Amino acid sequence: MNIDFPPPSNGIYNNAGSSRQLVNYMEHEDMERIANGIFAEGFFNLTKDGIYKSEVIQKIDANIGQLMKTDAKFYAIHVSPSATELAQMGKTEKEQSDAMKRYIREVFIPAYAQNFNKGLNANDILFYGKIHFNRERSNKASFMHCHLIVSRKDQSGKKKLSPLTNHKNTNKGAIKGGFDRKNLFQQAESGFDKLFGYQRDLQETFVYCNTMKNGSIDEKLEMQEQYLSGDTKMDFQQEQNGLSKSCDEVGNVVSALGSLLPLDSQSDYDEERVEYLRLRKKQKKKRRISR
Mind telling me which InterPro entries this protein's record contains (predicted)? Predict the structure, then answer.
């Protein structure tokens, strides 16, 4: 599951003023679908479907007490399943849409609230979601994903919440709490697997993807050896021991990394070690066949 937080900008993601521009963008696909006679859903939150755009704008724009004019008023989040995850969520667009809303409500928002370390739960988060069914891709294939708009303030209007802060579980100073994105990514992944009974291959995991992108040489070699040994399924405890930071496309790790065993020209990879691991994998396969 790929999760990203688009940074504030002067365009669609300008979050210092009204949410109207972002909400209009979140709804733009509906016009095309309606014109083509395809069903289109409204916005949703923790308990309701079919919410009108006007309510979203009104609720988000009103929840800004004690925020300065230039402060962020809301944040955007993208939640995008990989092709294999999407297949596990259902066969039709309606099944996949319903599954995505269930995932957001039962897994993502509770984890989002928890990782501010301020004693919050899902009911404290003011958010709205919008399902999109199309994304620009080279093969022009339909690929369902979800856009979220989340208020900077909690439902009570008393606590400021920023998922972009670099503070984590701080107890001293002006900022209390912080936000643990690393833990969110891990919980979002394991929560998906539990909710939908998904058997995640090692290459699809947060741990593998992040290690191969950001880990040390030894960590990368150890992860490659684990993959080549045939231990390709990760349990939930292993996932919790991953390194920080999500890769750009968790759902398509091979593509994101460039190859199964990437040899970065800027690193000191031990090519003989990698070749040894490859040969050992082949030998194990031969022994199994001979039996």
Answer: BfmA-like
